[in-house]
Amino acid sequence: MNKNDLINNISEKEGLTKKDVEAVVNGLLTEITDALKEGDKVQFVGFGTFETRERSSRTGRNPQTGESIDIPASTVPAFRAGNKLKDAVK
């Protein structure tokens, strides 16, 4: 499922216009992104938690040349599923 499929499904199930649902979905994604940029967690009880994690620097290899390269430390987004979501997917 992609973003358009999600918007279409919600629109049909809830009887809302696609434009309204798209605005809400875009707003939700923007708020989650902004919170993660500030280092905050976004938690939906039962569904899961969006957070950032620090990835330490490491040495990697260029697959074409086999040459070692240094990969700098970075901050990456992460999602940890909640119990209700895990149980629903079982």
Automatic annotation (TrEMBL):
InterPro entries: Hist_DNA-bd, Histone-like_DNA-bd_CS, IHF-like_DNA-bd_dom_sf. Pfam families: Bac_DNA_binding. Signal peptide: none annotated. SMART domains: BHL (SM00411). GO terms for molecular function: DNA binding. The keyword Manganese does not apply. Residues 52-75 are annotated as: Disordered. Keywords: DNA condensation, DNA-binding. PANTHER family: DNA-BINDING PROTEIN HU (PTHR33175), DNA-BINDING PROTEIN HU-BETA (PTHR33175:SF3). Belongs to the bacterial histone-like protein family. This is HU family DNA-binding protein. It comes from Pseudalkalibacillus berkeleyi.
